[in-house]
Amino acid sequence: MLRALLVSTAVTVYSLPMSKPPAKSHGRLSIGASSAPRDLMTDRPHLEGAWVAKVITLFPEVFPGVLGASLTGKALAEGLWRLQTIDLRQFGEGKHRQVDDTPAGGGAGMVLRADVMGKAIEFAKKDGDLPLVYLSPRGKPFDQALARRFANGLGLVLVCGRFEGMDERVIEHFGIEEVSLGDFVMTGGEIAAEAVVDATVRLLPGVLGNAASTEEESFSAGLLEHPQYTRPATWEGREIPDVLTSGDHGAVDRWRHAESERITRERRPDLWKSYSSTEE
After folding, report:
1. Residue 8 C-beta-side C-alpha neighbours within 13 Å
2. Which domains does the chain have, with CATH numbers?
């Protein structure tokens, strides 16, 4: 069962049941004091220097979501990374904790207020100056190279947009990097934030267990991944390509590379053009 450690009224720090003791080579940080009743929480130490994702959101209850499952969930339980949600509503104005208002100049929808978001970001930055990322459809496309850059840092503060977005002055004041999953619009940035964290966390040391897994997958060498096969040898009249069962590792490598080139050329001419220019 997922257990949450409440460190304030605005932040939830997630951890999962420990599946095995973390490596002894890592140091530990003690758990800080909390205003939550002792019988409503479980203390869990964090690994020193663990990568951290801080998510500013109006819907903290949707986290960790899929991030609490599979390899990312196991890594979360083992302390290889940390997840904190910061409830934007806690910084809202007035009795009703208002976080948005009508757009200046008129128009449809609502805009997240600069003063409210500013306080939330300052709160997220108070114990470390992590890079700020705003999930926005007008941002730069999120790709594997960006995931690797994020993984090489200490963590991220991810801002989940809602409504018509947030006041531009916040983006300018804090120098926030805008990132997009693609050319489409969703109702909020929470799903995008989970996608960014998932793609980044799996690149952290020890998460996948096999570093070679990330070296052969799609985009790692500028190409889409080659086809994969497993048992049974024959299925619905279709057989595994002979080269993959030949035992000739050199031939297998050449076949996989050729297939990666073929698939990239057919499905992603933009990637193929970029890849081809580097090979000339």
Report:
1. 12
2. 3-201 (3.40.1280.10), 216-279 (1.10.1270.20)
The per-residue pLDDT for range 81-115, each reduced to its tens digit, is 999 999 999 999 999 999 999 999 999 999 999 99
Contact assessment for residue 52 and residue 130, using Cβ atoms and an 8 Å cutoff: yes
CA dihedral 161→178→137→154, nearest 10 degrees, is: -70
DSSP symbol at 146: H
pLDDT computed for residue 4 by the predictor: 37
CA distance 74 to 9: 26
C-alpha closest to that of 33 among 7, 3, 12, 4: 7
The dihedral of CA 219, 220, 221, 225: what is its sign? negative
Q: List the beta bridge partners of residue 244.
A: none
Q: How far is CA 265 from CA 122, 227, 262, in A?
A: 46, 14, 5
Closest CA to 50 of 14, 86, 19: 14
Q: Structure pTM?
A: 0.81
